[in-house]
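Quick bug: Mobilization protein MobC output formatted oddly.
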Amino acid sequence: MEQNWKNSTVRKLSEFVRRLIFGRKFTVYTRNKSQDELLEELVLLRRELNAIGVNFNQAVHRLHTLDHAPQMQRWIERFEQDKEHYFSVVGNVELRVKSLVELWSR
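Here's what came back:
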């Protein structure tokens, strides 16, 4: 009974017991362990993707500060295209993870 009270929206145990005895309605929240574990993994994935993106930007910024041979310049241009694609994909993943977190957090 105590666990159900702690998972309910009723703040006082005495009020919870009165509602239970007299058959009044109250809300009890339940958690899905597999969803909780998945959410934790998704949050870690989002953080890791963000960290990779930060490192990626730092590396590109350092490359731009150096003097470049023509071959290096072509490589950087191609790298920029790959970067744009990467950030587009990561952005889509982040939006999807965010929507899943919001859906399952309710």
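Actually, after a second look the formatting is fine. Residues 31-105 form one domain. Closing.
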